[in-house]
Amino acid sequence: MTGPEQRTDTDRATDAPQQSGARHRGSPARDSIVPEADFESYYGRPIVKPAPWEHDIAYYMFTGGVAAGSAILGAGADLTERPGLRRTSRLGSAVALVLSMFFLIKDLGKPSRFLNMLRVAKPTSPMSVGTWLLSLHGPFSALASAAEVAGLLPSRWQRGPIGLALRLGRPAGIAAAVTAPPVAAYTAVLLSDTATPAWHSAHEELPFVFCGSAAAASGGLGLIGAPLGESGPARAFAIGGAVVDLVAEHRMEQSMGISAETLHQGSAGRWMQASKGLMVLGATGALLGRRSRAVSIASGAALMAGSLCTRIGVFEAGIASANDPKYVVVPQRERVARGEAVRHSG
Amino acid sequence: MSLRDSLFNWDGMANSLFGPLDPAPNAGYDDPPARKGFFTDTSICIGCKACEVACKEWNDVPENVFAMLGTSYDNSHSLNANQWRHVAFIEKPAKATPPVDLGMPTLGAAPNDVPEEEKPDFQWLMSSDVCKHCTHAACLDVCPTGSLFRSEFGTVVVQDDICNGCGYCVAACPYGVIDRRRGPDGDPSVGIAQKCTLCYDRLTDGQRPACAQACPTESILFGDVEELRRTANDRVARLHEQGVMDARLYGNDPDDGVGGTGAFFLLLDEPEVYGLPPDPVVTTKDLPTMYRRAGAAALALLAGAAVSFVGRRP
Ligand code: SF4
Ligand code: SF4
Asked: In which compartments does the protein localize (chain B) (predicted)?
């Protein structure tokens, strides 16, 4: 049959794999970490539908993570008098946020659709919750970066509204930092609150993977932009984030069951492999290269790239898991066989 | 319920996310009519596709994007935005051991003189699939715009003028039913989520849904869910008496992972043979856990940042 990784285009409804007979043996899995499963399916066609999203959503989660992590770093740098780190983080955060909105709106089609989501507030919809979180966090982040820009202007201009923006920089930055963590974490809920096997089965650990990834990326940005003397906290944040990302990802694979396979196969497997390599490389460089500006910049870039690869890898693994009925049938069958059929009790 | 309660009091909401429930009163209707649904008895489906055609005609659903799959007589692929009823055709090896002959009236073809070795070595299963109108509908739970709503009949309906095509419902449905419409060009609802409405417009008019009206064998029955469940249980019992031990109900149990479906089925084989998930669970059942874990991760992120600054002087 056609490998699931080759069926990740948007045209899914019509390009079901050609397969004769309802009996279907699981496709041979390369690097399978779970024994190959026997199961039946309807001509090997997908049971659940893959999310009709493009890579934009992965970029959206990456830039959202950078924005959130940088907002926190920016406030810390502001409070501890580290102007270089503050500037990088505040401006980086605002730019990342703008990019993040761009990718979201690109996926939705037009800006009015973002506004359309604000017509209701629905706690059962992580997308609704996320829209409100972004709307809460965004203005603070924008104000903090406006203050940063105001600070760059000649001092004779720093009066009136510009002076006000300057004075509001610190409170706005702190508010942005406090509202930032949910922005980084909710994207994990966004993915796992679906019937997509690889995303839903990861729901316990995915928030930690994504928050670790956000710390690694935003710390990485700090390493790139801040002078060596000020980059200590960014360095610690980045290394810690990379470690959390790697450890949580490992635990996630242990608890996901058979759909963890999709993190090792095809293009998702390559993205995840790249993400691990870049995280290890970046964290090691950040740890050992603290006296070299060049090494710091390279490590920061590696961590940012690693974070991006994690998002794309997790995204693609989910799409692959939705395209292969094995990941729907086998875990549900096994659960029933274990006597754990999901039944409401009391 | 206050905002604070609805955001934090998950225990109070637990039954709204999982477990047996009458959906319309739960959604706030004061005195709704009895819950309506479908019972599709696949044992008498002849695969004529009258339901598919009637649905398309009544609901003005455009033709599916045409592509022969070449695997079976199924040429309408799957349930999707352009296919609200879908007849599955399964061709599979005949059962090695025929049902026990209990000397009862037989189901299907009458006994004949065809010698065993000349009988075909395969069997056909046909089943008309449709949106399940779940008691706990993941699609409805996750929709960020409120475009999907619970009708007074307990069914789940999309308002295409509100949907913004985000596609979240597509990924959330555990049965792979709902999808964004893909064509034809120029159709104003391209990109908008579409699925069976259980002919909401006909129901408000006191009529049966088009598919049930058109089905010549009454394989598709429409009515009050309570009553349909009784009919379904009787039918299975009768088939079991006749030796058709493979007959089973699917989706009728209010204690299952989606709280029972409004549209349920009598199947003659395992659900996955028909392309149905064996034991689906509504994704929002785990939402409280997800939010808790995300909250913990968010706090860890903030704490991690604070620790990174502690004890360092610039
Ligand atoms: S079957 Fe899918 S589309 Fe239909 S109500 Fe249930 S979750 Fe929604
Ligand atoms: S695609 Fe439409 S109906 Fe589906 S979740 Fe998004 S807004 Fe709601």
From this structure: Cell envelope
ipTM above 0.85, yes or no: yes
| CA distance to partner chain A, nearest, from residue B288 (Å) | 9
What confidence tens digit (pLDDT) does each residue in B34-66 have? 999 999 999 999 999 999 999 999 999 987 666
CA distance A152 to A162: 11
CATH number at residue A300: 1.20.1630.10
Single-letter residue type at B110:
A
Q: Write out the two tokens for A332.
A: 């549900």
Inter-chain touch B173–A325, beta carbons under 8 Å: no
Please indicate, yes or no, if residue A18 is contained in any of the structural domains. no
* Pick from A39, A199, A208: CB nearest B297: A208
A155 shares contact with chain B (CB less than 8 Å)? no
Within-domain flag for A335: no
Domain that holds residue A103: 55-327
- Give exposure, B84-116, as e/b (b: 16+ Cβ within 10 Å): bbbbbbbbbeeeeeeeeeeeeeeeeeeeeeeee
- Give chain B's domains with CATH numbers: 19-95+121-284 (3.30.70.20)
CB atoms within 10 A of CB A79: 14
First to last CA, chain A: 44
Are B176 and B195 within 8 A, CB to CB?
A: no
CB proximity under 8 Å: B 206-225 to A: none
In a domain, residue A50? The reply is no
* Residue contact A69–B175, C-beta within 8 A: no
pLDDT tens per residue, range A144-158? 999 999 998 888 888
- Please indicate, yes or no, if residue A1 is contained in any of the structural domains: no
